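tl;dr need the bound structure. longer version: we got a ligand (magnesium ion) that a collaborator sent over and nobodys looked at where it sits. i said id run it. heres the input, straight from their email, havent touched it
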Amino acid sequence: MEMDDFIGLAFSSMVIIMPAFIANSVPVLARGKRPVDLGRYMGDGRRVLGDGKTFEGFFAGLGVGTLSGALFGYPLHSFLLSLGALFGDMLGAFIKRRIGIERGKPAPILDQLDFVAGAILFLYPIYRVTPEQVLFIVIATPPIHLLTNYVAYRLGLKRYPW
Ligand code: CTP
Ligand code: MG
């Protein structure tokens, strides 16, 4: 692949996925108190999702994520990306609880990719991210996610650096 093609791929991939990154990062600022699972437990004795998934975080992420793309004239794209990111993150939390990983404890790969998988899937009906873009996003997201989470941790926003 030519260098110019690679830069084009990198740029287009990051522009497309940006609303999902925003929707996934904003909830930590919301300091939500009302858990989406309403504090309920499953038969395995663990919370359905846990206290890390709140209504306040969900709507803050959806609102700011949608707005981020709406400013550039893509309100529906950014809405679907944000919704998908937030549902992907909740599915990730659901899976973590079912396999016994407590709220806030790390699940490598799952923590970094649950939200981008959800975002790409929800966007699919109106826009198909190319396989090359999916590959770029899957490779680039974990280091970016780890870095932004570390910054949030140092700023005292997050309890753990992941
Ligand atoms: N958050 C929220 N509502 C959401 C998603 C996230 O309020 N729908 C907030 C919570 O305060 C959460 C923080 O953002 O702790 C960081 O999100 P994340 O790292 O995904 O949650 P964890 O605390 O690691 O919890 P889990 O193990 O359930 O993923
Ligand atoms: Mg998560």
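gonna send this back to them w/ a short note. The chain has a mean pLDDT of 96.
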